[in-house]
Amino acid sequence: MEHTCKLYSTLHDKKWRESNTRKQKSLKKPKFKEKVIMCLMCLLGDVSVASRRRTTIRSRIKCCLLNHSRRKQQHSRCFHYTPHQIPFKSITMVSFSFLRLILLLCLVSSSFSYSTASPSNSTTADQTLRPQDELQKLKLIRKELQKINKPASSDGDTIDCVSTHQQPAFDHPLLNGQRPIDPPEMPKGYNKDDESDEDYQLWSLSGESCPEGTIPIRRTTEQDMLRASSVRRFGRKIRRVRRDSTSNGHEHAVGYVTGRQYYGAKASINVWSPRVTSQYEFSLSQIWVIAGSFTHDLNTIEAGWQISPELYGDTYPRFFTYWTSDAYRTTGCYNLLCSGFVQTNRRIAIGAAISPRSSYKGGQFDISLLIWKDPKHGHWWLQFGSGTLVGYWPAFLFTHLRQHGSMVQFGGEIVNTRPGGSHTSTQMGSGHFSGEGFGKASYFRNLQMVDWDNTLIPVSNLKILADHPNCYDIRGGTNRVWGNYFYYGGPGKNPRCP
């Protein structure tokens, strides 16, 4: 680079002196265009005179942007012009503009070369990444995004305020053209004073909410879908054969009731930020309302908080919903990622991060969730916190749950991909075993169910189960303040859980 600029400087000085001697009075100053061209030649290099020596971008910038006071000293890296010949601001602006263009072209060229280059000498076809397949995948992703993301007025870079009747649920043939129904009758025995009025979502901590007639929807991006193991399975859980099966890596620590007809459930769930060690694993704490068998016709309604790097791209605990009517095979999805759940609230964003979270030996925070069946229309409603109706699952989505549930579960679930052939270190709950108690282990408290008369009553005959108690365990109890409760969770891999 120094050689190149020096040559230009020497040649130009020589030419200037010769010309000045012959035609002192008629000498013209170099035009602005010429100055820019010479600057570009310095930046890009001229094959006729340029040195083959490698140089840095810093040297090239210095070549064209060096201060004129230093040019008087005939710096070897710059054209030698007198100060009155080149306006420094003009050259600086032009140089930066061209430099940006050059750098952009270089980056694009490098990316293209990198993506099409092959480590071995092979044919041109072998050196590509099958662009037709990639384009087809991108088209499929964008087609799915059109179903999920509706035209909206943006609220920040992740939450959109979408017209209520344009939300994904109304793409369903049985809901097309309809609007959300009126709020249902609350279960008897529900006491709003028992709940906190705090706002637990990060996006709305500043007091933001969507306008009347709209709902907040977390925006789904191409990056979200590209993280998924399958585009067609995006936003869905992996199919499970049985609730207590770990053959596909799902492990649980739960309390449950069965043997009656259940029309809803309620609990306060302690919120933590457990460690999730793999993109394709998750950790969640939730309520399940279940009907049918654990084979082909399982119906579930689910709500709680989860950490899922694959679904959300981060490790924040997030409020979520889920449903299926065929054992997670082809129906159902998380949140609003398919036609199903109908949202009615303009302050709660399903899939948004929850804050604050609990800390070990520190402050403890929980969220209260209530799921119940509307006696009038038969839809299953969801309430978050203090009397905040989020929306409902229409009854027609289900087969068995059109009538009632046959089981209710509360607790934690993780996915264990067995990295390196050993148990995962993904945590459940707080990441500590139940025996550590309050402030250290995660909990569910005030467990209740809704009976046939739309009445909230304490659960009875609560059973507890941990698939792998050496990895994640559970311990129940009851008292006058918390009613039925349990502590649960664990660290995953440890000496007793190899």
Automatic annotation (TrEMBL):
Domain of life: Eukaryota
Gene3D superfamilies associated with the record: Outer-capsid protein sigma 3, large lobe
Ranges where the record places region Disordered: 168-198
InterPro entries: Glutamic_endopeptidase, Neprosin, Neprosin_propep
Domain Neprosin PEP catalytic: 244-498
Cross-referenced PANTHER family: PROTEIN, PUTATIVE (DUF239)-RELATED, PROTEIN, PUTATIVE (DUF239)-RELATED-RELATED
Protein's name according to its UniProt entry: Neprosin PEP catalytic domain-containing protein
Organism (species): Thlaspi arvense (Field penny-cress)
Highest classification ranks of the organism: Eukaryota, Viridiplantae, Streptophyta, Embryophyta, Tracheophyta
